[in-house]
Amino acid sequence: MFDNPADLIEKIRLGEDTFLELKEVRFAGHRVTDPHRDSLANELAAFANSRGGVCVLGVDDHREVLGVDLDRLDALEDFIRELCISSVTPSLTPVIERLRLPSTTGEMLPVIKVEVSRSLFIHRSPGG
What we know:
- This protein is about 30% helix and about 25% strand.
- The chain is an alpha+beta fold.
- The chain has helices spanning about 5-15, 35-50, 75-85; strands at about 20-25, 25-30, 30-35, 55, 95-100, 110-115.
- The longest helix is centred in the middle third of the chain and has 14 residues, at about 75-85.
- The protein has a single domain (about 5-115), classed as Methyltransferase, Cobalt-precorrin-4 Transmethylase, Domain 2 (2-Layer Sandwich).
- The strands form 2 sheets. It has a 4-stranded mixed β-sheet with strand order 1-4-6-5, with helices on both faces. Strands 2-3 form a two-stranded antiparallel ribbon.
- It is globular.
- It contains 3 helices and 6 strands; from the N terminus they run H-E-E-E-H-E-H-E-E.
């Protein structure tokens, strides 16, 4: 879904819907503090339980590309994988991809795209 960066950028410009979730990322040291793990687990499980979807981490709700620090990309990926295993039952195996998207100033910033396919199973998360 949104395999072409231009398609993803256009979709981000249109805003969130049932197939797209945008999340700003914040850290305290190397620990992810935002998005909250339960909130992200709920979103990813909801995608799996519906028709699939994409979550882009490093873009805020106002559709502004904020990016993720390069030295924190590994920690963010580990956070996503860990919550897909420990916070969602049965576990999810999303496709996690590192991309660069243009900010409002045109600077190419790193983001993480998490694609969740529709599942044959019902996935449970902390929120339901």
